[in-house]
Structures are given as structure tokens and as C-alpha cells.
Amino acid sequence: MQKTFYQKELIIKNTQQRNGANNKKDVEKIQSWLNLFAMQNPNTGTATGIDGDFGPATEKAVINFQKFHNISQNGIVDQKLFSTLSSPLKKAFESPVSGNNLRELIVNTAQNHLKNHPYELVIHNQSNTGPWVRSYMDGHEGTDWFWCMGFVQAIIDQAASIQGKNFKTLMPLTYSCDTVGVTGLQKKLLTRYQTARTNPSIIKPGDIFLIQKTTNDWFHTGIVTAVNGDIIETIEGNTNADGSHNGNAVMNRMRNYKQSKIDFFSIAPLL
């Protein structure tokens, strides 16, 4: 795999605890995962501020997390406990994925990420932050770092690597929809929306959709997982229930490609 930054998100440098010699970045990691856990388990009392300060609120949130998992409730986070906290990320990137071909591997990899609930956080008043965003964006985060293409490339990279392939033979490492769109035009891999509307058989699961702003300007992307009539089913990052290009989660969405300017980038050369 080319995109391996996620591995750094699975580790803290030292045991962290209240009144200890703490590392602020590690404490923020812990607080981030406590909040991500709270999103899926809102009654557990693990939501707390993300400020790098291991104070009484963070300690209590850790104790509540330990209580939920029926383990020693000491409020201390060592690497073993942090591995439990960050296990959704490890499962997303490292759980075995099967498929009969690369298209199936891409779809199944995207579905595996989806079920582990990738979600961004707001840290220091900056959206597009947190361990999931940094993992998809190779350490980058913050309001300006839209992460939909980072998610797409992480999925294709992970799936391609199962077959010993390098996704960068298909496209450059980038966080830009425009870069991938232009690459698609240059390599004749991009099907324009006008053609896709009249010949939907061109659209295949595992391909990348790119939503047009103007002819050579695209602002959102994701993975096509199925085509049903006028509808494409997708898994996409940095979106929400409204289909925003700057949402907060990875979601399974339905898009009417015959009513939107959606171009399609074929992954065929990697097959």
C-alpha cells in the first residue's frame, strides 16, 4: 500500500493519564476516539473536549469506556487500551477483504470502511479533522482539506495492493478532483455525463464518479458500487445526508446520474 499514514494513528508514544507526563497530541488522539465512540454509543458517557489536556473529564470518559468493555477502570490509557479505542481504523485498513476481481475488491473495501463509521471531527474550531481524515489525507487535516478524493484513493490503493498493484499507475497521488478529472481526460478514461446518460453500460462498479462544477472543474467524488436504472449507488467520503461535498462522514448514497452532471473515471487499466 502507498497510503500508510493510518498506521501512525494506531499508536501513542507513551501511557497517558491524569497528572502524568502527557503528550498533547496523544491526548488529542485519545479524546478523538472517545468522541468517535460516543457517536456510535451515545449513552456511554465518553464524549469529552478535544484539547490535549488529560483532565478529570477525560479521565472519567476513559473510565466509562473501560466500564463499557468490562475491563479495569483506572482511567489510564496505555497502548493496549488505545488499540481498543482505535480498533475501527485498524479494521477498516487491515481486515481481510475478498473479491473475484479488482472491481469487487474496491467495492468490498469501501463497504468495509463504511461499516467502521469513518467520521470527521471539529478540533480547535477546524472541521475536516481527526484520525480518519488524517489517515485518508496522509496526515493533512483542517477546514481547507476536503477529503473525498483522499478517501477514494485510499480505497483503490488498498484494493489494488491486494493484487500487488500500484494505484499510482492509474492516477497520481492527489487530494484534488480536478487532477483526477484532467488525468482521466488525458488517458481517455473519463466518460462525460452526456455519454453516461445515454449509455449507462459504460458505468461499472468500482469506477469513480466526479461531479462537475464546470467542464474542467469537479468538486466531489466517490466510488460507484452499483448501477440501477437512473441511479448509481455510491460510497463516498466527506459527505452527509444532503450529499454535500463538504459533509462529515463516509456514507452509502443514491445519486440520479441522469439529473446531475456526473462524469465517470474508469479503473479499467488496473484490472
TrEMBL record:
Transmembrane segments: none annotated. Residues 146-238 form the Peptidase C51 domain. SUPFAM superfamilies: PGBD-like. InterPro entries: CHAP_dom (IPR007921), Peptidoglycan-bd-like (IPR002477), PGBD-like_sf (IPR036365), PGBDSf (IPR036366). It holds the Pfam family PG_binding_1. Residues 24-83 form the Peptidoglycan binding-like domain. This is Peptidoglycan-binding protein. It comes from Flavobacterium artemisiae.
